[in-house]
Amino acid sequence: MAARPSPASDHARAALQEAMARLAAGDQSALEEVYRATRVKLYGITLRILGDPKEAEDALQDVYVNLWQRADRYDPTRASPIAWLAAFARNRAIDRLRTGKVRQGAVPVEEAAPLADENPLADMLLVDAEQTAQIHKCLGALDARTQGHIRAAFFEGYTYAQLAENADVPLGTMKSWIRRGLQRLRACLEASEAA
């Protein structure tokens, strides 16, 4: 099942679009917001094409310098901000390849244009972060005993037998506590997805 955009990812996308609009209007502080929101992904793109961290950093600097001058060219009706910026970064890296001055390790220029970006999209990273936060929120809604046992079993690697021994209860009781806790956790997560 494909992850559907969450309110958090929608908010991040809208915030990036708003920052791009402010940047196009000459708001210098918006460039910093765009940089913070996109630098990791864009660096990954330039590094994958250029194959050298220094070259990738130089290309990334070109991206943001050119963005400052050309932000008004972004059209939110044609592409998401991150897709437009990713294409912009890829083009800057390819331009550096074409100069012939790039260090060894870069991909051939004819392979750079269709190079797939294997990193998750920024909005998917936000979805993952939101899902993780929701899991911890739902865990926090469980009673302290059940929460502690589930955390110990799934995050700390304790076996059910170890947990039963530590709690001085039969193994079957521990399994029942955890099973019921997981059922409540699942119900909480399903309710949050439906909201």
UniProtKB/TrEMBL annotation:
Record keyword rRNA-binding present: no
Family membership: Belongs to the sigma-70 factor family. ECF subfamily.
Keywords: DNA-binding, Sigma factor, Transcription, Transcription regulation
Pfam families xrefs: Sigma70_r2, Sigma70_r4
Residues covered by the RNA polymerase sigma-70 region domain: 35-99, 138-187
GO biological process: DNA-templated transcription initiation
GO terms, molecular function: DNA binding; sigma factor activity
Source organism (scientific name): Erythrobacter neustonensis
Name by which UniProt lists this protein: RNA polymerase subunit sigma
